[in-house]
Input
Amino acid sequence: MNVKIEQTKINALSAKILHRKSKGKLEGLNNFFLILTVIVPILFIVALYVSKGTSYENLINIVSFALSVVLIAVAVLSLIWGVSDKIVVHKLGMKNNIYIANECDNVAQSTEAELTWFFRYVSEMDLQDNDTFSKISDDERQTTYREALKEFDPGNYSIVCPVCKSSPWEFKKGNCQLCGNTKK
Output
């Protein structure tokens, strides 16, 4: 049972890390879209004001029209990709996996019924995480596993991969299928 709980905690930490990385990328993209929606109209207004009555007025009107089309395209892409919705999914995924990892530390005091409920909940969260991260590369999975090992027992620098017995703190690219490290 202890091995199952440890594996559950590692899985939850790995999923939390993946959610955090994905959320960060999506928030960056969302901020880029937001900055564009503010800057393009400002540039448009300034350019129109500065070029009014000059020989550049027609050119500025064309450029402003093109930037407006780009801004509309960016807004449509943001809606199609569902950036805001995906950010919410990753926030919830982080929250759920942090909860699971914390509960793994407290599971020793649980009754059999509580354990049954807990592992049902973990199974449901695993299904959601597997759907979310179904196309993750082996390199990303291994990097995430090493990061999860580091977070598994904070301050314990002697923790090692259970397969290759290598430390996640001393990474040398190798052939371990679990962490990608070199076997000791």
